[in-house]
Design brief:
Distance between the termini: 42 Å
CATH topology: Rossmann fold
CATH superfamily: HAD superfamily/HAD-like
Number of domains: 1
Strand content: 15-25%
Order of helices and strands: HEEEEHEEEHEEHEHEEH
Structural class: alpha/beta
Radius of gyration: 17 Å
Largest sheet: 5 strands, parallel
GO molecular function, one term: acid phosphatase activity
Strand order of the largest sheet: 10-7-1-11-12
Protein name: Magnesium dependent phosphatase
Number of helices: 6
InterPro entries: HAD-like_sf (IPR036412), HAD_sf (IPR023214), HAD_SF_ppase_IIIC (IPR010033), MDP_1_eu_arc (IPR010036)
CATH architecture: 3-Layer(aba) Sandwich
CATH class: Alpha Beta
Pfam family, one: Acid_PPase
Number of strands: 12
Length: about 220
């Protein structure tokens, strides 16, 4: 599945042939994320559109959506496929097994899309791996976000207030990935936000974690 233009629609994008294939997933987890001497944030929060997936869910897919046999993509009424950015399934898999100093890491979603029901439906259709090796298990992407999914229009200050109330995690222990600079306002709460431009990758996760560690005063020995 290719990245869709921010100005395209599902109908127009489905009629475009010969688009280049998406990049392959990164080969390895960055070493800095595996360093036992350096902590990870307690709560990772992700935007959806152009962060976890390369489209606007309120304009590009046209219902009804159907799952593919691999359960890693969905097709819409026009046969167009919609899936996560290539690195996203492995990133979510890693984070569900990783731990912060105080225990397991929690994952959440903060999206201001108006297509709340469609976004939630897509997160039920798309599956991500949670085990390792041949025959690894997979689960609905929506079930991975154990901190909750705040998906509705409005300031993301409201989204994070809800996430904080639900989880009890301090804002300073949250790391947020989003593609829109206007959402930098969430940093007023004490959150670290990583502004990304071309979807979530291992490199972006590493840079976000490094910035969070820097602000918290953690340094590698």
């Amino acid at each position: 599945m290719r990245k869709l233009s921010r100005s395209s629609t599902a109908a127009s994008s489905s009629s475009t042939n010969g688009a280049p294939p998406p990049p392959s997933p990164s080969a390895a987890i960055p070493a800095s994320l595996l360093d036992p001497q350096l902590p990870l944030p307690r709560l990772f929060v992700f935007d959806l559109d152009y962060t976890l997936w390369p489209f606007w869910v309120d304009t590009h897919p046209t219902p009804p959506l159907k799952t593919t046999s691999s359960r890693t993509a969905a097709t819409d009424r026009y046969g167009e496929e919609f899936a996560f950015y290539p690195d996203v399934p492995q990133i979510l898999q890693f984070l569900t097994r990783a731990a912060a100093p105080s225990g397991p890491i929690k994952l959440g979603v903060a999206s201001r899309t108006s297509a709340t029901a469609l976004a939630r439906e897509l997160l039920k259709i798309l599956h991500v791996p949670v085990g390792e090796g041949a025959g690894e298990k997979a689960k609905r992407a929506g079930d991975v976000f154990d901190a909750g999914m705040e998906i509705y229009p409005g300031s993301k200050i409201r989204h994070f207030e809800a996430l904080q109330k639900r989880t009890g995690v301090a804002y300073e222990d949250m790391l947020f990935f989003d593609d829109e600079s206007r959402n930098m306002e969430t940093e007023r709460l004490g959150i670290t936000m990583r502004l990304i431009r071309d979807g979530l990758t291992w490199a972006e996760v590493e840079k976000g974690v490094e910035e969070w560690r820097k602000r918290r005063g953690y340094k590698k020995n």
